[in-house]
Specification:
The chain has one helix at about 30-45, and strands at about 1-10, 15-20, 55-65. The chain is of the alpha+beta class. A three-stranded antiparallel β-sheet has the order 2-1-3, with helices on one face. A hairpin with a 5-residue loop joins strand 1 (about 1-10) and strand 2. The two termini are about 25 Å apart.
Length: about 70
């Protein structure tokens, strides 16, 4: 199973934005996740079409993805 960490933010336009991290540390505490997300916000280095995509924290979650190949052409 592939695991990732989804950091969910609210943009400066009030929309949702997710930052996905592959192979994350699986023992993060709530405080550690919030601190990391607040650090991203405080950098204020991202702008997309005049809007900040990482303006506020919305949440964080681990996501597990299961892939079952039926077949693959080589």
């Amino acid at each position: 199973m592939a695991k990732s960490l989804e950091l969910r933010f609210v943009t400066s336009l009030g929309k949702s934005k997710t930052l996905s991290v592959k192979d994350p540390i699986l023992t993060l505490t709530t405080e550690e996740a919030q601190q990391a997300m607040n650090s991203i916000i405080s950098l204020n280095i991202f702008q997309i079409e005049g809007a900040n995509p990482y303006a506020a924290v919305a949440g964080a979650r681990y996501v597990e993805r299961v892939v079952n190949d039926i077949f693959e052409v080589e």
